[in-house]
């Protein structure tokens, strides 16, 4: 069994960049500029934004299910982000260099397992968990700030 890590579609976010800061604030969105080459992980490119890159920090519902685990959290999206398409079995470096909270869910949106793993161990964890037929997907979060990073599915 192998896995694929999925990036978000940029289309829903593109129109937001045209809004004024006041219009963004009315939607609880913050325009940000990356102040370093790490710490601003874009969920479309699956990479940390480069210093000086414009991003939006917004609340995103990454688990829109009718279960107690329905969930949303803050994410960054870069203005010029191109949707990443990692090869099956590969883990983007922006995940590999972080401490990860991995959470497996079944088709009903119920959590079936969870653990905190070093980014270097994510591939092994995903292979094992997605080999279980009851696992529909695994959501990856930054363990420290808790932000949603990406979803993994069986390839």
UniProtKB/TrEMBL annotation:
| Domain of life (superkingdom) | Bacteria
Pfam families from the UniProt entry:
DUF1203 (PF06718)
Protein name (database record)? DUF1203 domain-containing protein
């Amino acid at each position: 069994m192998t896995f694929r890590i999925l990036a978000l579609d940029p289309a829903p976010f593109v129109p937001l960049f045209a809004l004024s800061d006041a219009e963004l604030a009315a939607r609880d969105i913050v325009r940000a500029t990356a102040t370093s080459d790490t710490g601003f992980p874009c969920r479309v490119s699956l990479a940390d934004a480069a210093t000086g890159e414009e991003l939006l920090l917004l609340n995103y519902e990454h688990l829109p299910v009718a279960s107690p685990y329905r969930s949303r959290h803050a994410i960054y999206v870069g203005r010029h982000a191109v949707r990443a398409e990692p090869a099956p079995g590969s883990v983007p470096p922006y995940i590999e260099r972080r401490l990860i909270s991995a959470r497996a869910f079944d088709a009903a949106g119920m959590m079936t397992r969870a653990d905190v793993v070093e980014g270097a161990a994510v591939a092994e964890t995903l292979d094992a968990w997605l080999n279980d037929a009851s696992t529909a997907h695994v959501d990856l979060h930054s363990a420290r700030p808790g932000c949603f990073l990406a979803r993994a599915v069986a390839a």
